[in-house]
UniProtKB/TrEMBL annotation:
It comes from Curvibacter symbiont subsp. Hydra magnipapillata. InterPro entries: IspD, IspD/TarI, IspD/TarI_cytidylyltransf_bact, ISPD_synthase_CS, Nucleotide-diphossugar_trans. It catalyses: 2-C-methyl-D-erythritol 4-phosphate + CTP + H(+) = 4-CDP-2-C-methyl-D-erythritol + diphosphate. This is 2-C-methyl-D-erythritol 4-phosphate cytidylyltransferase. NCBIfam families: ispD. The gene is ispDF. Pathway: Isoprenoid biosynthesis; isopentenyl diphosphate biosynthesis via DXP pathway; isopentenyl diphosphate from 1-deoxy-D-xylulose 5-phosphate: step 2/6. Catalyzes the formation of 4-diphosphocytidyl-2-C-methyl-D-erythritol from CTP and 2-C-methyl-D-erythritol 4-phosphate (MEP).
């Protein structure tokens, strides 16, 4: 199946096959749940020739594995992808079956900026401030629909929302001058993952207050005094960041076939 031809003008374009589920109206389901994938990063640490989210793993671009997992979640009304201006990757990409995917050329200079712009794009698509948004890293391509469902089940009735995370498994050291300065208690330490699930309006407010320095959505909610819920994730849901991560991700994908 060939994806519909897209341009980046207007800035929001559909990327949905004929089999995509229709977007439910606001009156049909309230609050709805949406996915948001910031996809405007350069991947400078990965060693890849271009943006790492477009590197090929298992025969397809990394971000398409990511979108396939999200699109398989039946409770998602749609998925908003945020790319940089001039990014043409999705003009020829074959979209996943399931939840409709929309692409907006409104990537910011930082992750926080891209997410904030993506939230505005979602509202233009018909989302409401009280709807939930699940923000997910494009480079966490080993996500499964079961991971997402577990997060939704844990957070959909929570006052704040939450995130997938892992308890720190290793001994944690504090460094000074290249040497161990102290061993840090790990009993209350978690590694943050994505998706991170919050109300659209609340996340907008938090990101505007926290500014571009925050590296994830939970940090923005913390900045405004909220305490997001920790939901245990999966060790396979790691972020492909460094050159050695690509081989590991490819091996996991191959094992799933």
């Amino acid at each position: 199946m060939v994806a519909p031809s897209m341009t980046q003008t207007p800035p929001i374009s559909p990327l949905s096959p004929a089999e995509a589920r229709p977007v439910p109206s606001h009156s049909a389901v309230s609050p709805r749940l949406w996915g948001l994938v910031p996809c405007a990063g350069t991947g400078s640490r990965s060693g890849a020739a271009g943006p790492k989210q477009y590197a090929v793993l298992g025969g397809r671009a990394m971000v398409l594995h990511t979108l396939q997992a999200l699109a398989a979640v039946e409770r998602l009304a749609g998925i908003q992808v945020v790319v940089s201006a001039g990014d043409t990757f999705f003009e020829s990409a074959v979209p996943p079956r399931g939840a409709p995917v929309f692409v907006a050329s409104c990537g910011g200079a930082t992750r926080a900026g891209s997410v904030l712009n993506g939230l505005s794009a979602l509202l233009e698509q018909g989302a409401q401030a009280q709807d939930w948004v699940l923000v997910h890293d494009a480079a966490r391509c080993l996500l499964t629909a079961a991971d997402v469902d577990r997060l939704i089940d844990a957070c959909q009735h929570d006052a704040v929302g939450g995130l997938l995370a892992l308890k720190l498994p290793d001994t944690l050291k504090q460094e000074q001058g290249g040497r161990v300065a102290a061993t840090v208690d790990r009993s209350d330490k978690w590694l943050a993952q994505t998706p991170q699930m919050f109300r659209i309006g609340a996340l907008q407010t938090a990101l505007r207050a926290a500014g571009d320095a925050v590296t994830d959505e939970a940090s923005a909610l913390e900045f405004v005094g909220q305490s997001p819920k920790l939901v245990e994730g999966s060790a396979q849901n790691f972020k492909v960041t460094y050159p050695q991560d690509f081989a590991l991700a490819a091996a996991v994908l191959a094992a799933r076939v």
